[in-house]
Amino acid sequence: MHLFSPKRENSISLKGVVQISHNSFFVFKDCLGKLFLKTGKDEKIHKSIVKNMIESNPYISKILKRYRIKPAIDTKALKELSGGHMNETCNIAMGVYDILSDSIKDKVDADSLKEASMLHDLGKVLIPSKILNKPAKLNSKERKIMNVHSTLGYELLKTQELSEETLALIKYHHQNLKHTGYPLLPEENTSSDIGVQIISIADKYSALREARVYRKKMSRLDALLVLYKEVREGKILPAVYDALVKYAKIYDN
Which stretches does DSSP call E strand in 134-197? Predict the structure, then answer.
């Protein structure tokens, strides 16, 4: 993969993500059809990309209007997510996937899992920073706005030539086995429960192990105990949790 500079910033499109060493990169395509990579450092490029995504899908503006979200693009959030949490979630998700038995792995498309885990929180680029970085518990209105980030991520990316499986994993990565998460699953839903489980538990574990503005980071044991509670509640498949425990013991020191 070679690095190219875009010829026209208003004619570039997101093609997906790749991982080189321990870093994730967004892959874009310029007006001449050449691929190039960008991390979260080039805010001007990313703002242009997200703006084009919004213009390509009018439904996004309807969502923002419904929740009274000012249509501002928080590129700082994208920079922090792409360089930290989204990349770490991908590492954990693929680590958990590798540990699972072959009979379970056969139910998941590894490429979709990797791509979705890298892009799962892209929708947070449209969530107001005062909500993302609130140093206290969110109220009910703020929680509803925060919860729409997975749908926004799905809508932003649905015009970007990603697979249906990847898009479904992004949209439903906050769902669980009891289907009490968000957004609601349609009856005809075809997303992989196992894939959603893997990204969901990786996302939660990564978040618990990070320091946030409203709390200190948890220890490995405390984070695993929080997630074990969800296993007992029937929200997380025991096999997926066991794979996370094995992954954490090896890689999270």
Answer: none
Rounded distance, CA 122 to CA 141, Å?
21
Place of tokens 């590492």: 91
| d(C-alpha 142, C-alpha 87), whole Å | 26
3-state SS assignment for residue 22: coil
Q: What is the DSSP letter of 75?
A: H
- Angle of the 43-56 helix axis to the 149-157 helix axis, nearest 10: 80
Q: How far apart are CA 121 and CA 219, in angstroms?
A: 23
Token reading at 46? 């990313």
Residue tagged 């026209």 (tokens): 8
Please name the fold of domain 45-251: Hypothetical protein af1432 (1.10.3210)
pLDDT along the chain (253 residues), means of 10: 40 61 62 65 71 90 94 72 77 95 94 90 90 89 96 91 90 93 75 86 94 84 96 95 96 84
Torsion of CA 193, 199, 201, 205, to 10 degrees: 180
Category of 217 on φ-ψ map: left (φ > 0), alpha (ψ -120 to 50) or beta: beta
Total residues belonging to the chain: 253
Could you tell me the CA-to-CA distances from 45 to 14, 18, 62, 73, 184 in Å, in that order?
11, 18, 24, 12, 33
Q: Three-state SS across 183-252?
A: CCCCCCCCCCHHHHHHHHHHHHHHHHCCCECCECCCCHHHHHHHHHHHHHCCCCCHHHHHHHHHHHHHHC
